[in-house]
Write a structure and sequence with these properties.
about 240 residues; transmembrane; membrane; Lipocalin; 3 helices; single chain; transmembrane helix; nine-stranded antiparallel sheet; alpha+beta; about 15% helix; 12 strands; three-stranded antiparallel sheet
Length: about 240
């Protein structure tokens, strides 16, 4: 009885071979079929060549690029809407801060003088004296001065300013007539008689007296002397007086 013939196989089986290519896997360059353990393609009988895309014992096929691992899509946390209680609490905190700021501003406005005194230190010492108000001359033009005014201008003339200079004992007085004309008087020392009047003019907050070779400006408790070219010669402090006596 004849022995049965084994079924034909395509290629050479390498699974039971001791060859290092027993785990050979490759892709047929002709038909694209994947073959494992054989040196010929099962479909088109194309023989394996070293140029074929190949894996050995599970390693990637030569000449292929590993497929990138997809990046997992992370879910973003869902934003939570604030509860009514949280909304009310937040608004209450904002209103409290706003009310505190408004109160602070009002207190600063109402007590600004106290704040500035505290910061500058003024008014803190017991010995600090309150400055006395500026003395201002007033009343009728003194008889001695009125008698020297131009004829007919004495009635109704008023004393509008009086000063003294401590360093030289000079005294100055200004009288205004009823018609509004100003006259300047000067005495060389306290108790001495005043000289004849000179016409003066109002100049800003003070008075200006002009002579042929000089002029004098009385302003802000200072007297400034100028030459005939209006160049400043000297300046001295004045003391305001209530009368011209």
């Amino acid at each position: 009885m004849p022995k049965p013939r084994p079924s034909p196989r395509t290629g050479i089986d390498l699974f039971e071979a001791s060859s290092p290519l027993a785990g050979l896997g490759w892709v047929c360059p002709n038909c694209g079929h994947r073959i494992v353990g054989y040196l010929t393609c099962d479909l088109c009988y194309t023989a394996w060549t070293p140029e074929a895309t190949t894996t050995v014992r599970g390693r990637p096929l030569s000449g292929t690029t590993p497929r990138p691992v997809p990046t997992p899509a992370y879910r973003k946390p869902t934003s939570r809407e604030p509860t009514p209680g949280e909304v009310v609490a937040g608004c209450g905190c904002i209103l409290f801060i706003a009310a505190a700021l408004v109160t602070l501003v009002v207190l600063l406005i109402l007590n600004w003088s106290t704040v500035t005194s505290f910061l500058t230190g003024s008014g803190s010492s017991k010995g600090s004296a309150t400055p006395s108000p500026t003395v201002s001359a007033s009343g009728p033009c003194p008889k001695e001065l009125a008698a020297m005014l131009p004829k007919g201008t004495a009635p109704g003339a008023r004393l509008v300013a009086a000063y003294s200079r401590e360093n030289v004992k000079d005294r100055y007085a200004f009288c205004r007539t009823k018609a509004g004309k100003l006259y300047y008087f000067m005495a060389k020392k306290t108790g001495a008689s005043y000289g004849r009047p000179t016409v003066a003019v109002k100049s800003g907050t003070g008075y200006l007296v002009r002579f042929p070779d000089s002029s004098f400006r009385f302003r802000d408790l200072e007297v400034t002397a100028y030459d005939e070219d209006d160049k400043e010669l000297w300046k001295e402090k004045l003391t305001a007086e209530a009368t011209a006596d």
